[in-house]
């Protein structure tokens, strides 16, 4: 309960909140951080391995291998989500599973799976973009602002 709500709470409610906070089990902070670190790191290692495969076996250079690598990570995330495995990984790993590409794909796929019975447009499409819309908008705005700042700091540079 926030401090503002605690001020408005009755004495009985305040006493209950104090008792509840005393009985609440302590969170294993170090363990949670370690799990998040391991899982996020493992996702990144897998991504790097996939990129290396594109470079060595498909003849891509590192820059051109980035897009198919992201696509494969998204595909893996969606498959794991559809099998119910990504949620189990996320439950164990906590924030470590929220690596941007796979975490975002998981959240989109979860929304699509959950609302598929409502139809493609209002169910799948509408519910997926309740989450994706703000991310896309703020990502685009942030990219625009960074682009303007970069342009201003570097100047026009005579076509460089």
UniProtKB/TrEMBL annotation:
Pfam families: SpoVAC_SpoVAEB. The keyword Transmembrane helix applies. Keywords: Membrane, Transmembrane, Transmembrane helix. It comes from the Bacteria. The chain crosses the membrane at residues 36-59, 65-85, 133-153. NCBIfam families: spore_V_AC (TIGR02838). This is Stage V sporulation protein AC.
């Amino acid at each position: 309960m926030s401090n503002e709500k605690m001020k408005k709470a009755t004495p009985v409610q305040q006493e209950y909140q104090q008792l509840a906070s005393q009985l609440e089990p302590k969170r294993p902070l170090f363990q949670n951080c370690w799990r998040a670190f391991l899982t996020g790191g493992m996702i990144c290692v897998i991504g790097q391995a996939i990129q290396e495969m594109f470079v060595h076996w498909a003849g891509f250079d590192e820059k051109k291998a980035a897009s198919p690598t992201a696509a494969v990570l998204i595909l893996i995330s969606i498959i794991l989500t559809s099998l119910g495995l990504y949620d189990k990984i996320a439950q164990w790993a906590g924030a470590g599973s929220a690596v941007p590409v796979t975490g975002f794909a998981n959240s989109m796929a979860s929304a699509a799976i959950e609302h598929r019975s409502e139809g493609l447009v209002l169910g799948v499409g509408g519910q997926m973009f309740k989450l994706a819309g703000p991310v896309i908008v703020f990502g685009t705005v942030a990219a625009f602002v960074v682009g303007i700042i970069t342009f201003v700091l570097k100047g026009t540079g005579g076509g460089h």
